[in-house]
Design brief:
Helices cover 37% and strands 34% of the residues. With 158 residues, the protein is α+β, with helices and mostly antiparallel strands. Strands 1, 2, 3, 4, 5, 6, 7, 8 and 9 form a nine-stranded mixed β-sheet that branches. A hairpin with a 4-residue loop joins strand 5 (73-79) and strand 6. Helix 2 runs antiparallel to helix 3. The longest helix has 21 residues, at 2-22. It is elongated and about 50 Å long. The protein starts with a helix and ends with a helix.
Length: 158
């Protein structure tokens, strides 16, 4: 029994030390950039929801440090003033640091309200056509990626 109390105290101290050294914050500094635009530059936000290949997940202050790969879909940002902003991303990375800062770096990104549903359907149709006519493994892989982006684009635009 005494051994259990020692282990319990040790774990409690470790947990407290980890929280102190990680520098957890009640705010989350968010940076979101793509090749064509910077959407957020170290701006404080409440929450960010992201699509990743390991599943969609929400990020709040004090989130465990993580590195993930974005999959095509919509990043939803809940700003401190209550506004919700939705931005389509084709691919990229998500980094959650131990100081509660978050970076999203996207290959391509556009606000959902700027998407054209008919143009998105054309992108998907062209990608599906390329997939059906692909003759090499590389061409099939590239066409599969284009189809995945096209499907996510159509879904986001509707």
């Amino acid at each position: 029994m005494a051994a259990m109390r020692c282990v319990s105290r040790l774990l409690t101290r470790r947990t407290l030390n980890t929280m102190t050294t990680r520098g957890y914050a009640d705010e989350m500094q968010f940076t979101f950039a793509a090749g064509n635009q910077v959407f957020y530059d170290a701006q404080s936000v409440k929450q960010v929801d992201v699509p990743s290949f390991s599943g969609a997940f929400g990020i709040l202050p004090k989130h465990v440090p993580t590195l993930a790969v974005l999959k095509p879909g919509v990043v939803t940002v809940f700003e401190n003033d209550g506004k919700v902003r939705k931005i389509f991303v084709s691919s990229g990375t998500i980094t959650i640091n131990d100081d509660s800062s978050v970076q999203v770096l996207a290959e391509e990104a556009a606000p959902v309200e700027h998407l054209d549903a008919s143009a998105a359907r054309e992108v998907l149709s062209k990608a599906q056509s390329e997939l059906s006519s692909a003759t090499t493994d590389q061409a099939r892989a590239e066409a599969n990626i284009a189809v995945e982006v096209g499907e996510a684009l159509v879904k986001a635009a509707e």
